[in-house]
Amino acid sequence: xxxxxxxxxxxxxxxxxxxxxxxxxxxxxxxxxxxxxxxxxxxxxxxxxxxxxxxxxxxxxxxxxxxxxxxxxxxxxxxxxxxxxxxxxxxxxxxxxxxxxxxxxxxxxxxxxxxxxxxxxxxxxxxxxxxxxxxxxxxxxxxxxxxxxxxxx
Length: 153
Hints:
The protein is an alpha+beta fold and about 150 residues long. The chain has helices at about 5-20, 25-40, 75-85, 140-145, and strands at about 45-55, 55-65, 70-75, 90, 110-115, 120-130. The model has no long low-confidence stretch (mean pLDDT about 95).
């Protein structure tokens, strides 16, 4: 990751830490995380959360960007992250088996699971209109950012 992106992530984390400390709910924190990430990371075309409904279904939560799929069921990058309990970086969504297309413009994606008491309760999903927009280096700072949800769950 280039130093500009790393520095941007650090500034975003600090800003979100201050903004979310006294938030009244996890929804408020998620909405704030989406708004700041989407505004400050120019390569994000969609930034949002999907909430685990059951083992095979996710429902859209707070997000920024084009209209989202309301329900993800049975396959896709987000469900893969839930099932593996690990972050997923997809350089080219067309190459990911079972990818669910919510926006035809999306070319790459990163998904970070959010765990509470050992269970995945949601995922942060970020899309970009160019391929290779994310790397493994994006996982740690995004995981740190979504960790701001923990006190509110």
